[in-house]
């Protein structure tokens, strides 16, 4: 037989336990720790391309972590695919070409470049060996098939502009999306394209094997001005303006990290830079990778700022063949900002 005092004791314990449970349930959920950074996903339009070298190098040098950032890098074969991911809200930032910011404004989408990596495209129009006899300039591409990374990509924009500048409208040649790197090389070798636009290290690989030769070289300021009439800010970090308005601290930290990397690029040798990169980037030919890297270094800005004549040059290029850009008033001030790189000290 259970004693009355024991029954009362059990009842008291049960009541106390119930009260504790209710109190815990009534308490608000613990807020996220203030010292845990929000993850920022950066989509790169081809992470192994040397035009986007600053992105991977920033991670390898530890500059993201030094700024208290949690950054995840992802890659798509073409800039247009990275743009799509940004607009869908799947990523917070894109390492892609600045011209997307202008093109998107015509569609009512607001994105802004906050760090400019390349003051020139770093792109090269390559002619396949079998077509070299018939294509001596962009005026000769009538009836030919030209390779681009993707339809609507920056290589597509530049290809159309160069052809039109030389009197060949888009209706008189074919455009084939062939991606980059190995898929581009395969398209050249297999005769799927007569010429195409690509970047380093693909350019150096094709030159070494003799599978293609240079037609238009935009890896440096001189070549770019000759082809396009001015500097052409290209590889950059751009974000949606709505994200930027809500995350100025993160944008500032990203800008600091990337500018430190740009300064590293201008104060270290190609050998020192290559040593920081993943081993598979150089492949089996380290000498070829170093050669491609040396050819690419002049394209990068020192401070991440937009070149003064850059936006107008890009607008001129896009207006030449895109009716949507030509027919609208483009507010270039809404497509980029130097605000976040201005405060970075060397």
UniProtKB/TrEMBL annotation:
Pfam families hit by this protein: NMT1
A GO biological process held by the record: alkanesulfonate transmembrane transport
InterPro entries from the UniProt entry: SsuA/THI5
Signal peptide: 1-34
Domain spans labelled SsuA/THI5-like: 58-269
Keywords in alphabetical order: Signal
Gene Ontology CC: one annotated term: periplasmic space
Compartments in which it is found: Periplasm
Major localisation: periplasm
Sequence similarity: Belongs to the bacterial solute-binding protein SsuA/TauA family.
PANTHER family in the cross-refs: ALIPHATIC SULFONATES-BINDING PROTEIN-RELATED (PTHR30024), TAURINE-BINDING PERIPLASMIC PROTEIN (PTHR30024:SF47)
Protein name: NitT/TauT family transport system substrate-binding protein
